Structure formats: structure tokens, C-alpha cells
Amino acid sequence: DTGVSQDPRHKITKRGQNVTFRCDPISEHNRLYWYRQTLGQGPEFLTYFQNEAQLEKSRLLSDRFSAERPKGSFSTLEIQRTEQGDSAMYLCASSLRSSSVSYNEQFFGPGTRLTVL
Amino acid sequence: KQEVTQIPAALSVPEGENLVLNCSFTDSAIYNLQWFRQDPGKGLTSLLLIQSSQREQTSGRLNASLDKSSGRSTLYIAASQPGDSATYLCAAPDPNAGNMLTFGGGTRLMVKP
Predict the structure, then answer these.
(1) CA nearest A109 in B: which residue?
(2) Strand pairing report for B100-103 and A53-57
(3) pLDDT tens-digit profile of A23-45?
(4) Contact A45/B32, CB-based, under 8 Å?
């Protein structure tokens, strides 16, 4: 399977615990994005990486959230001291940006559904 | 800041009908627009990407159009089938923020057999 993969697919945690999600993008893609989707809404942008550099962060990404892409391949999203309002689907997407590819079609993974009790 | 709106929010049709889903965006300085399908509890599947230089893009029974001047895109589904039941999302990239996508709220489609 050469698509975007995410792990775990589901996570149930208690309020106050820390959680970490992983995203593996399509192998040749240099851009990686994180989005959050709550029930009945469209996804909202959280942050993105070009290679290993984190270039943009949404105001939705509070100081309890941190994302890394240490070698420009997979990425992790950590939420510290989880709150019930963090319950959502966390989606990862990747795309290829180069001088010859400008249209930036994004491909999404299956998502990680987080439930905070 | 880009805002994307989709109407209707929900749509229920009998099998076989042709239907149109609407998407509007406020910032016409986009160079493409992407349509996605999302099944309940699942991730997003890319259906079509229309570049600003194109007016239409087709894939099977799906046809998407883009009118930048009016800030509108439509997704046309021909001869709808129960398997088309899903939420359809449109999204526009922000080229000033790494092409991050701004999504509409989606149209929840149910096709009844």
C-alpha cells in the first residue's frame, strides 16, 4: 500500500493524559499536513511541514499540541494534558511540491479518531 | 482569509437522479480546487482536482466545474447510485500558507435505492 497511513486508527484516553499519533506520508511527498475534524464539520488546518521544517501553524494549535517531522519522512502529533474538547478525527495529508509540480494535490490518510473521556 | 461554503448541507435523492453539489469561495485568487468524498468515520478520498486554467474536470460519472470569477464550483454526479452515499467536501488551497486547504462544511448525500 503506497498511500498515506496513520496509527493508531482509534485512541480512547482519559482527560489529562498525553497522546501521540503517527503519520506516514506517500514516500516521495515532501509536504505533510495535519488537520482536525469534529463531527459534522469540514476538516480544519493545524500545521504543515515541508521536508523536516514546520512552516505554518494554525491558532487552533495550542501550546498543548506539538508536531514533528524529524527526518522529513513520518510525522508525529502529540497532545499533552488532553481535554474533552480535543475529541476529534485527526487527519494527515501529503503532497508533492516541486518546480515542476505546482498543483499540490493532497492525499489523505484514514485518520485517527481520538476520544477523551 | 478564504471562506468556503457548501450548499445544500444534506441531500436525499432516489437512485438514478442526476444531481449538483455547490461550493462557493470568497478569495478567487486560487489556482486549483479539490473535491473529496468522505464515508462515515473514514478519511478523505480525492475525487477531482481542477486547476484554475481548466473550467471542467471529469472522472467517470463525476464532473466538476470551476468559475473563479464568480467564486463557484459545482460537482455534478450523473445517474446516482446508492454507493454514492457519502459526504462530499470541496476545498481551496491558500498559496500564502503552504497551500493548506480550507474546507467547506460538506454536503451529506443519501441515494435511496
Answers:
(1) B43
(2) unpaired
(3) 999 998 999 999 999 999 999 99
(4) no
